Amino acid sequence: MKDFISIKTILVATDFTTRSEQAVKVAVHMAQRHNARIILFYNFSSFYIIDRTGRQMVGQESIDENFKQAEHRLNLIKDHLRQQYNFTNCSTVIGNNTLIYSLNKTIDEESADLVITGASGRQGIKELILGSSSYQILTAANCSVLLVPEDSHQLNFKKILVPVRMLDKLHEKFDLSKLIAEKNKGTISLLGISPEQQFTDIRRAYIGLRKELRRSHIEYDSSFIVSNDKALEISKVSNDSEFDLIILNYQDEENWKSFFSENFLKRIINRTSVPLLFFKDSNQNNIKKDPEEDTGYDITLPFPG
């Protein structure tokens, strides 16, 4: 259990596409600023047939070949990081199970603080909801997640938007925001957003964080909005100003499902070129999955004869 917020181990989920390339670039710049190590992670699933004789893997030769190809491509990325950035604190992990099981197993074994994954800005909202790998990682990873749009060019986070819209784990998210700002010598834009029925509590928390920023050496600006449509307000502010990073609390993600037809997911998650960092409290994540469960496809066949 961690007593303070830090970023010492960064896991980069790659699928060797252009969106992954940008995620790797962001990761190496963050790692250099935080003196962190990088884990390059790739996963592929095996396929099984189940009959009365038991579980049998299909296509072992293909699996071995896929593993070798993945290992080769990951090593090429490692070589590039060493040659281009003189960065050597990098290792690789290849998972061979469901994406989320392999990912969380690696997060646990390597004590990863942050997962960085690329996100395509060209996909429609339907694809994002129903099963893109980046959305799976966002919803199920057992640590904070940074989504990097493939058309993003931000490698340094000089201007950071930090919405204050819910109280759960607010100070932990704020500590992460200050850490990012300090490492980037950046500015925090504190945005309080409250519906009328929560005005007193959220306003009090917002004022407390503003006082904390005033006592720090971090440059900041602040504003407060009373609105029942938090998603729309964040979308407006992010479009009116050029931010390098938006830091959100994932605990509120369930509430965003009501905003799928509004501007928040369309403009912020699915259309924006601004990286989005979703804070997750890793101490509360308890997703457990049997490694034998849902691995590839299971086909039950009749016993021959």
From TrEMBL:
Coiled coil: none annotated. Pfam families: Usp. Residues 7-149 form the UspA domain. InterPro entries: Rossmann-like_a/b/a_fold, Universal_stress_UspA, UspA. CDD domains: USP-like. It comes from the Bacteria. Belongs to the universal stress protein A family. This is Universal stress protein. It comes from Chryseobacterium endophyticum.
